[in-house]
Structure formats: C-alpha cells, structure tokens
Amino acid sequence: MVILIWCLTLLMLALWSAAGWALHTLLTLGPAWLDKLPGLIGQLPYPAVLERWLPNWQELLIAAAATLQTVFGWLGGAGLLLVWAVWALGTLAMLGLALLLTLAVRRLPAAHQPAATG
Hints:
Elements: H1 2-29, H2 37-42, H3 47-53, H4 57-75, H5 78-107
Helix pairs in contact: 1-5
C-alpha cells in the first residue's frame, strides 16, 4: 500500500511539474501569441460537430483568449514568480499528504495470520 501511495504521488508530481513548466513557457512567450488565436480557432476541424455540442464555441474561445491576454499582460514579470510559488506549495502539499498517508497505513494493525498447525 505504501508503494502505491508513493507511485501515485510521483505520478501526480510529474503531472503537476509538467503543468507548471507549461504555464511558465506560456508566460515567457508574453501575451502577443494570443493575437493569432482567433485565426487558429477558425481553422479547427469539424466546426459543425463542435457547434452541435457546444453552441457558440468560437465566440467563447475568442472571449477566453482575450481574457487570457489581459491576465497575462496584468501578471507581467511577477507571473513567473507566482507560477513557481504555487508549484512549490502544491508540491509540498502532495508530499505532505503522501507522508501522512504512509504514516496512517503503517499504524494500521497488521492482519492476523492464522497460526500454523502442525
């Protein structure tokens, strides 16, 4: 059980680190890359299928891109520090939770083995 806890923790840490790295990369590009997004949204395949499942999806994506551009511009250089601070706090929380779960599992009473007769 302890091995499972730590394997899942390592998997979650890898995904968490990949998300932090991806956000760091997006913030270092600056908000200018979002200017190209409306043109790319129009080139997505199967727009009729998307429209059926999510009406007005193009307008929603364009509004989300505009909001992201505003947020990225507002964060500026402080965004990188914020990303890594949140990453560090999340990492510490995951490691702490794994440690608590490990201690809880180790404190569980051992399963009783039937005495060997013989």
